[in-house]
Fold this protein.
Amino acid sequence: MNRSMFVIAAAAALLVTGAAQAQDFDFGIDGCPARLSGNPGDPVTFDAFVTLTTANNTGTDGAQGWSLSVEVSGGVMQKASLKGVIVSTIYDEDDDGEPSTPPIHHDPFDFDLDDAFTDIANKATFKDDPLRGGAISAVVLKSQEKMVLQPNGKVQILKLTINGAIPAEGCAPLTISFTDGFKSSVSQPVNNVVTFGGASVKPVLTGCTVQLCAIGPEFHLAIVEPGKTPPLSGDSELTGSFPPGDVIVPVDVLLSSVNLPPAGDGAQGWSLSIAHDACMTVSKVTLKGVTVSTIYDEDDDGEPSTPPIHHDPFEFDLSDAFTDIANLATGEPPSPVNDANVKGVISAVVMKSQEKMVLHPNATDTVLRISYKVTVEANKTTNCRAFFLNGLKSSVSQPVNTVITFGGASIQPALQQGLVIKLFGSVGPVDGAEFKSGDANNDGKFNIADAVRIVMAVVPSIGPPLPCPASGDVDGNGRTELPDAVYIIDWQFLQGSPPVAPFPACALREDVTELTCPLSYLCTQ
């Protein structure tokens, strides 16, 4: 038997079906970009890592091995590799059971998977369809000695290099998924399995999708907590603790444009159709006081004898627009939603009819404000969502779709992100104080000086500790460390994520009190 067949046979012998375990295992993907853009036909390449996450393991040992069967659709698997993929293990060099030769124990022990007893990583095709491409991998950490992963946590277990191409127009999905049954030219079909305690366990399988998009004018819509920036993909989230009863939750609707000519125009108008779950109601929806920055020509009639009076920027209240609709709405017939129980709001704005008025290109503006009323119950979390849904109508309007008017044409938003609202009903006195993270130097500002102050506090002999340690915990892991300084710099200069809540507004944080932070760090108003 050649070495390849021996290794595969050894892996198959190890990955036998065993009793169900209480531990949780999850195969996922790290480094999968939400979106890649380019000119039509441009090639794109990116690396992603398959991950294994172990949770709820009460024992001392983690997984002993695993097998992977990965599919790529909408792109091409260029390479699968274990070389340089390092995992943290528990390793006994001489685990032979002989008391005269006690094991040499290493914990933690960083281990390159390319050195494993079984270290298979190959491109593959599906068992019944050679046109479906992907990869397989099989790893047994050690054969004679004991080597296992740490009992809980996430590790990267396979590096994938993926090729794709930008479509001729719009966006096309490239998906990485876990599909049993892929095989290499010398292997049998492989299943997705984790070996734990000598038994095979089926993990939860979580793939990812990359949108490959041709560069062109795009508009994005998001519902967010005021002052917050939406994530790169998916819904935003608003959380908090409140006494039982009705809580008013204000939100903003953001309109962003990208890939527009820098010296050109932005949107001329828009219509919005936004639904919400039954666990909340609309307290208020308004355009009044919603101010956008525009380019405005007061006399854009094309007559050379009357040149336009040009204003740029021009601050404009949307309640003064030519069309300024903001109303409650439902999905009742003749709406295509065809369900009167679906509630929401609609809005329509045309800023000017005769003169030219447009938003700035490649900018983000608040274009609608909504206040929701959420009823919070004691010791329960109320989980509600607001989201874009075409077809809602008011009592006097036709069904409305969510579209952007740009250059005289209607354009569908490329990205629509809703908002998940999670409110917990706290009973009795609430520990903690109102506080906002990120202002480590307590000057009332959020800037690079806060990163410098964190460095001074955590590097020995440079500077004094933070009077309020929680102010420097911007990544939300409960500690103030050098990565918090890097986090602030990434946010300030590299379009990274903002500090975690509470930020930028004050909110309750249970571990912050007058005993742990000076009053000057707390929100007293």
